[in-house]
């Protein structure tokens, strides 16, 4: 896992932040990250993300730690911290990509909760603003990952899923992955 | 406002959904939509989004209604409903763009909360999946808008702001917009 992309969530208030933290983790998984690191007190979110991974596939790892600052400081690779105060994503995305996925260097993407200590701004190789407007750390993470991977994350195949959603013009279709495989073979793909 | 892009949030449970609905509205604003329509019972989210618009600029409108289904049915323009069951965003984004912003037709982007009635799937011109994985309606909206506008939304200028964030490599810098204007003139931009 030398070229992995890891999302680190800093800060979590149990109860109040459960859904936001869960959405950070699910977005990391759906949009191409390999692993999410959550605070120790975010056990409920961790459980939800693991449950989704069990059902919809992986690989995707969920880890809990309480040493977010030291972990970031000791990260051997590139650190990108998402913040509305940072440089414009459209200006730095090519540099971040060149310093990470393009050369097989691990990338840590730090996503803040409420108040992020100044350490993270200083430890980051890139402070990146997905707009310099206040909106949502989940939205910022999503746009950042989609741009980092240039859309390639949308083509990802999932392993060990016990269900797969088949894209539909109207309505919902969820199948067993083996059935989906057979159907794709039938389409000649 | 013939070519406006409007985000409609369907479903809201006061308390439990306040932050998600707020983040849907703030993401709509930050990433280029002209207006968000929230349920009648999402007054607290509406207030937060209006407050951010007052401070960080617009134009951006926040509206509350309780006729989401009829509003969608009667929409004169294109309707895109974001759902993990829909067609892949990478396959339909060009068509949605051609049917809306490219030809000056209004676009309604429907973002569900928990359970979206089947009406919305049927009324939509496009059911669009930003991945066919469960993650976050905020993340889905963000990627959808960034792709719809092809990044042009990131270059938007804000009017009537009383503060502006200046992108920084490290740290935070917030200025009075008049000061920012003078600085940009000094940079020869």
UniProtKB/TrEMBL annotation, chains A, B:
Top-level taxon of origin: Archaea
Assigned EC number: 2.1.1.206
Catalysis: reaction(s): cytidine(56) in tRNA + S-adenosyl-L-methionine = 2'-O-methylcytidine(56) in tRNA + S-adenosyl-L-homocysteine + H(+)
Alphabetical UniProt keywords: Cytoplasm, Methyltransferase, S-adenosyl-L-methionine, Transferase, tRNA processing
CDD domains to which the protein is assigned, alphabetical: aTrm56-like
GO CC annotation, single: cytoplasm
GO biological process: tRNA nucleoside ribose methylation
Chain segments carrying region Disordered: 160-189
Subcellular location: Cytoplasm
Annotated S-adenosyl-L-methionine binding sites: 82, 112-116
InterPro entries, alphabetized: Alpha/beta_knot_MTases, tRNA_m1G_MTases_N, tRNA_mtfrase_aTrm56
Record-level Gene Ontology MF annotations: tRNA (cytidine(56)-2'-O)-methyltransferase activity
Major site of localization recorded for this protein: cytoplasm
Pfam families (alphabetical): Trm56 (PF01994)
Family: Belongs to the aTrm56 family.
UniProt subunit comment: Homodimer.
Function: Specifically catalyzes the AdoMet-dependent 2'-O-ribose methylation of cytidine at position 56 in tRNAs.
Record PANTHER family: TRNA (CYTIDINE(56)-2'-O)-METHYLTRANSFERASE
Protein name as it appears in the record: tRNA (cytidine(56)-2'-O)-methyltransferase
Taxonomic classification: Archaea, Methanobacteriati, Methanobacteriota, Stenosarchaea group, Halobacteria
């Amino acid at each position: 896992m030398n070229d992995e992309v890891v999302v680190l969530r800093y800060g979590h208030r149990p109860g109040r932040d459960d859904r936001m933290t869960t959405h950070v983790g699910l977005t990391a998984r759906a949009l191409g990250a390999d692993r999410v690191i959550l605070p120790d007190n975010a056990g409920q979110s961790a459980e939800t993300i693991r449950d989704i991974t069990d059902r919809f596939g992986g690989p995707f790892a969920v880890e809990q730690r309480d040493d977010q600052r030291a972990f970031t400081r000791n990260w051997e690779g590139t650190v990108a911290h998402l913040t509305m105060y940072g440089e414009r994503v459209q200006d730095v995305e090519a540099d971040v990509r060149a310093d990470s996925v393009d050369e097989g260097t691990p990338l840590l993407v730090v996503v803040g909760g409420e108040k992020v200590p100044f350490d993270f701004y200083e430890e980051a190789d890139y402070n990146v603003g997905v707009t310099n407007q206040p909106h949502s750390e989940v939205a910022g993470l999503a746009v950042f990952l989609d741009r980092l991977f240039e859309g390639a994350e949308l083509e990802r195949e999932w392993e060990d899923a016990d269900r797969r959603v088949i894209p539909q013009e109207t309505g919902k279709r969820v199948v067993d992955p083996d059935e989906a495989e057979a159907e794709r073979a039938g389409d000649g793909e």
